[in-house]
């Protein structure tokens, strides 16, 4: 197969405010791609444009060779794309158990590698909190639940927006370890995060956004040799 995901010349706006200016990149099956950039550069808008939560004015999004640009978000999700949004998106009236039970399904290939039990084995903390409401969990536990809820759909592509933001170092490490396990299980990922060191060790491609434009698109080796320049774009 060629690309799993191809984003071509996306222009996205909020009202009159033109935020994405021709964003293009692609992702091969099984790869992890980092999307980096300072605050407000258009990372979340790019993710939302891929998911159909923002409607681009022009440009295309293709998944497994199919042009999905005009599909509704739920139709994209049904094609085995899962999203872990910034802020985690807990359902206020659902327990931990219900968050996972409601979402769990085999994917379009009939695969159910990440079933309810495996997700709970991966996140033992959630096992102890099954009857708590999602909103009663700590920030780290909520993040684990948000990732778990995405995983039980057995996605081919998992999109993570700021999955470690605001978390204590130990919890961050736990989340990164799980993201690595997810990658090793063959799921493709797009990761927005600020931790360039961790992203460097994890991702196969790195896309840097500045004011809604892709200024760098590097493989792992190229990131190594252009590290200082990337850091400069990120202001670190
Ligand atoms: N719903 C919205 N309505 C209007 N403007 C928005 C909206 N969401 C984002 N923006 C603006 O679009 C620009 C890009 O925002 P976006 O959230 O995509 O950036 P980001 O790179 O993900 O940044 P952050 O790291 O702060 O989340 C910013 O100037 C932001 O203020």
Description:
- With 236 residues, the chain is of the alpha/beta class.
- The protein has a domain at 1-79 and 194-236: P-loop containing nucleotide triphosphate hydrolases (Rossmann fold, 3-Layer(aba) Sandwich), CATH 3.40.50.
- It contains ten helices and ten strands.
- The strands form two sheets. Strands 6-7-8-3-9-10 form a six-stranded mixed sheet, sandwiched between helices. A four-stranded antiparallel sheet has the order 2-1-4-5, with helices on one face.
- A hairpin with a 2-residue loop joins strand 1 (5-14) and strand 2.
- The longest helix is centred in the C-terminal third of the chain and has 16 residues, at 169-184.
- The chain binds adenosine-5'-triphosphate.
- Residues 14, 17, 19, 37, 39-45 line the site of adenosine-5'-triphosphate.
In short:
With 236 residues, the protein is of the alpha/beta class. Helices cover 35% and strands 26% of the residues. The protein has ten helices and ten strands.
Tell me the layout of helices and strands.
Blueprint: E1 5-14, E2 17-27, E3 32-36, H1 43-51, E4 58-63, E5 66-67, H2 73-77, E6 81-84, H3 96-103, H4 116-122, H5 124-127, H6 139-151, E7 157-161, H7 169-184, E8 188-192, H8 196-202, E9 205-210, E10 213-219, H9 220-225, H10 227-234
The structure holds adenosine-5'-triphosphate (ATP).
Adenosine-5'-triphosphate (ATP) is lined by residues 14, 17, 19, 37, 39-45.
């Amino acid at each position: 197969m060629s690309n799993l995901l191809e984003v071509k010349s996306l222009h996205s706006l909020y009202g009159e405010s033109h935020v994405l200016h021709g964003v293009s990149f692609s992702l091969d099956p099984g790869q992890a791609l980092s999307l980096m950039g300072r605050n407000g550069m258009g990372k979340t808008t790019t993710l939302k444009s891929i998911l159909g939560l923002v409607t681009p004015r022009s440009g295309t999004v293709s998944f497994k060779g199919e042009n999905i640009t005009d599909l509704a978000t739920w139709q994209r999700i049904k094609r085995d794309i899962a999203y872990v949004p910034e802020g985690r998106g807990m359902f206020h009236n659902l327990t931990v158990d219900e968050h996972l039970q409601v979402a769990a399904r085999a994917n379009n290939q009939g695969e159910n590698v990440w079933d309810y039990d495996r997700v709970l084995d991966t996140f033992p903390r959630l096992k102890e909190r099954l009857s708590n409401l999602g909103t009663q969990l700590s920030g780290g536990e909520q993040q684990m639940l948000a990732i778990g809820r995405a995983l039980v759909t057995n996605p081919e592509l998992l999109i993570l927006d700021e999955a470690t933001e605001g978390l204590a170092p130990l919890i961050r490490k736990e989340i990164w370890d799980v993201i690595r396990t997810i990658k090793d299980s063959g799921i493709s990922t797009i990761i927005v995060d600020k931790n360039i060191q961790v992203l460097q060790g994890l991702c196969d491609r790195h896309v840097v956004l500045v004011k809604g434009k892709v200024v760098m698109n590097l493989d792992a080796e190229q990131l190594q040799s252009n590290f200082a320049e990337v850091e400069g774009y990120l202001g670190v």
